Predict the 3D structure of the following.
Amino acid sequence: MIDLDLATLRAAAGIGVAGNFAGHLEQAGEAADFANVVPTTAEAPKGIFPWYLPGRDDFLGVFPVTHDLLRLPDEPGVSLQIEPEAGVLARVSYDASGWVTAVAPEAVVAWNDCSIRREGARKISHKKNWGPASKGAAARGFAVHDIDAGGALAPLRIASFMRRGGHAHAYGVDSPARGYSYAGAVLIDWMIDRLRNQEGADDTPLEPVGRYLDAAGRPDHALIGIGATRYTDFGESTYLVRGDESLVIVYDERDSSPEAVAAAVAGGAEDTLPNASVLRQRVE
């Protein structure tokens, strides 16, 4: 395991992959947003989006990540959902023109790409960063050198829960990380291509993220959420309120079964799980 301190994450760019787990966008009510996006292949994710850019002078320049807190947006009538993901801390390399040439994974961490279900948002990023404590990353993760479905991701699973009133509810479907549509070299090559070629347009929710990285001073690391799992019926229909606890757990299935993880969470003992990256955020 490896420690991930907030200072390291503050210096890294924040990027997300949209539509890398079959069915999530439909459950989140966001599939229609991508009607004008032509994927590179039928199985490919829909695109990439920014959620944090160091030094930028708009909302994307506000560092949103915490290890333990999730702050509700200060606006009425919005719905907030946990987005349980594997987050990948990766070293990023550029050529002399500022285009990304390489993405090298260094860690996999439990990641909550918490999102506002905001009707009419023009870009994905407008649903992702509403200020400090609007995202979550576990303080410890798995040291990796790849994100291959048959390599570092092979034994890992992603689970998520909401605690409310002393009771824990499964929020996302406990899923193998190897179940991502794109993983490993295929995902990395696709991300590099999107960072070099995704332009965005007024009729899509996408943006030219590669050029954003260049303008942000070419950060040498990025924290990349590689896609949210499907929701349980409870997660699909239940939004966060003050007093809830959000939990995302990435764990090694060789050491814990889904049933053991659920039992540990039910008993408030998730921190005792072996070989697990545990993110627990109180909602305020």
Q: What stands out?
A: The first strand starts at residue 2 and ends at 3. The chain has one domain: 2-283.
